[in-house]
Amino acid sequence: MAAAGSYISITALVILIRLAINLNLCLEATPIPPSGRNTQFIRTSCRNTLYPNLCFTTFSRYATRIRGSPRLLATTALSVAFNTTRSTTKTMINLSKHHGLKRREAAALRDCVEQIGDSVDELKDSIKEISQPGDNDFHRLMSDIQTWVSAALTNDDTCMDGFSGKCRKRNFKTNVRRRIVKVARLTSIALDFVDRYAAAPPH
What we know:
Layout: H1 2-29, H2 36-47, H3 52-59, H4 63-66, H5 70-96, H6 103-130, H7 138-161, H8 170-199
Helix pairs in contact: 2-3, 5-6, 5-8, 6-7, 7-8
């Protein structure tokens, strides 16, 4: 009987251990929801941008990481704009190989690829600079970043202008403009957050 009782105890212990392991795995697999305070910071910050709905939809998922920090908000916005712009550049390169384009359309697309490529470089430089710790000349650094992000936004607008006229392939034109519009709007949001961080005292 003692042996049987011991066997039952061991079996119960094994079951409890397995339950604990499964519980831990479930907890690890469940994403941590952002706190109300962090989410409210994103909502308030996005409210003053030109594209509040896109802004909140994009950055609310980073609320826990940003933690109400204007610097982290600006850095995250630059990173999102950079990644989206770089991805769009690759798509544009593929589209540039599209057959059946008129000479004007093909030329506009090549110019667009070059302009968006410049935007990628400018956003990359901005991320590198804003991540520099302990820079003594905060305002000079932020001025450089504002210049680069503004240039990236200008490149996006110039790219869209190249597709403002008639295009024989309407779906092609719509596809290009839709992608560039998103890039431009995310860059605009990033510039807004950079401007606000630049106006705040350095931390």
